[in-house]
UniProtKB/TrEMBL annotation:
Gene3D superfamilies: 1.10.1410.10, Beta Polymerase, domain 2. One of its GO terms (biological process) is RNA 3'-end processing. One of its GO terms (cellular component) is nucleolus. It comes from the Eukaryota. CDD domains: NT_PAP_TUTase (cd05402). One of its GO terms (molecular function) is mRNA binding. This is Nucleotidyltransferase. Residues 63-196 form the Poly(A) RNA polymerase mitochondrial-like central palm domain.
């Protein structure tokens, strides 16, 4: 079942302060994954580890191997990569036709190399002379750029053969969301500040923990399959999930030696973490008292004081290592569901590891993503193949 929070089913992002008024507390539940049309056998998924590959290995080694195999599956294939890059070029051309003085810069998972085959394409809208701008743009610049976004939305709505579900969203970083018709990929054009600092920290973390990208693939899919990564409904975005993983590793008494142990540690860490009294810092790796330490920008603090509201004490406080004023847990109202889900999946995984023979250790965690994505990925592969043939 999907996460259920008290109050209205849908709340506009710009009414998030109002949301704090009606959320007080709730009971977290283990969230079930999306149902597939047909549940595959555990031996039929592409990341299954055969009996021959298991020979001479213990259960934890097989778990680590399955995680790496899943990581290879969920990433874009060469043809899917061609289709994704072609989509970016076509979107850029569409934007240039409407806003000739603006450009799009790829950011997010596509830039860091963590993108899945069907991940959203995140593109930052910038003026040609603002490519290296850092920090949040001034109010005047943001208003001007937001005006460009609205113009872009109106024009893209007319291109019905190329895009569908075109919508302008008001948020801290306004954006135009849409779906590219031929590939089915979701695209977001965002008024974001430069993300170089965050990206640099992510790259350093992946060097520090060589298995981090493999672990991220499993954990992100776990969130995705349960609706826990939908930021507009109180979930955690890709960057927050990445930093939750890094936080669990940085706060481990001893660094897990392999990705299998790292997954077990992640589930155990977040099942037990006390979000009511403690906040968590990654750099430096320390816990802080939430009652005496607020991770918040000056502007956001003034707004909270003016509205006489404070976040519920159960909310996660996770300090962004790339920006000490940015709390990565401030939108994650579903944190209790996340913790309950981690507790359930940790128990399930341990039980599977105790069995003499288990077909798949990840079956409950990544669930039925294979049949759910099969048609979309075949479609993406076909488009990539068509593009490649056209180049011959």
């Amino acid at each position: 079942r999907k996460p259920s929070l008290p109050g209205p089913r849908s709340v506009k992002p710009n009414l998030r302060l109002e949301r704090l008024k009606w959320i007080n507390d709730y009971k977290g539940v283990s969230v079930l994954p999306l149902l597939a049309p047909k549940k595959p056998k555990e031996t039929e998924v592409p990341w299954h580890i055969s009996m021959r590959e298991r020979e001479g290995k213990d259960q934890n080694e097989i778990l680590s191997q399955e995680i790496c195999s899943f990581h290879d599956y969920i990433r874009p294939s060469p043809l899917e990569t061609v289709a994704r890059k072609t989509t970016v070029k076509r979107v850029k051309n569409s934007v240039r036709a409407v806003l000739p003085d603006m450009d799009l810069e790829v950011f997010g998972s596509e830039r860091t190399g963590l993108a899945f085959a069907l991940s959203d394409l995140d593109l930052r809208l910038v003026a040609d002379d603002e490519q290296t701008a850092t920090g949040l743009p001034s109010r005047n610049v943001r208003n001007r750029l937001n005006g460009h976004l609205k113009t872009l939305e109106r024009e893209l709505r007319k291109q019905t053969t190329s895009y569908s579900l075109v919508a302008h969203r008001h948020a801290r970083y306004p954006l135009v969301a849409m779906q590219h018709r031929s590939t089915g990929l979701d695209v977001q054009i965002v008024l974001s500040n430069d993300t170089a600092q965050s990206r640099d920290y992510m790259n350093r973390s992946m060097k520090e923990f060589p298995y981090l990208s493999q672990l991220y693939s499993v954990v992100k899919t776990m969130f995705d399959m349960r609706g826990l990564s939908d930021v507009f409904r109180g979930g955690f975005g890709s960057y927050s999930i990445f930093m939750m993983i890094v936080a669990s590793l940085r706060h481990s008494p001893s660094i897990p030696s392999d990705v299998g142990q790292a997954l077990l540690h992640f589930l155990e860490f977040w099942e037990r973490f006390d979000t009511t009294s403690k906040g968590i810092s990654i750099e430096p790796a320390e816990l802080y008292d939430k009652a005496s330490t607020q991770v918040i920008s000056r502007t956001a603090k003034i707004k909270l004081e003016e509205n006489k509201t404070q976040p519920p004490n159960f909310m996660l406080s996770l300090r962004d290592p790339a920006d000490p004023t940015n709390d990565l847990g401030r939108k994650g109202f579903c944190i209790k569901h996340v913790q309950a889900t981690c507790a359930f999946l940790l128990l399930d995984l341990r039980q599977r590891l105790e069995k003499q023979h288990t077909e798949s250790f990840l079956a409950s965690i990544v669930a039925c993503i294979y049949p759910l994505q099969l048609a979309s990925r075949r479609r993406l592969e076909a488009i990539g193949l068509t593009v490649e043939r056209s180049r011959l």
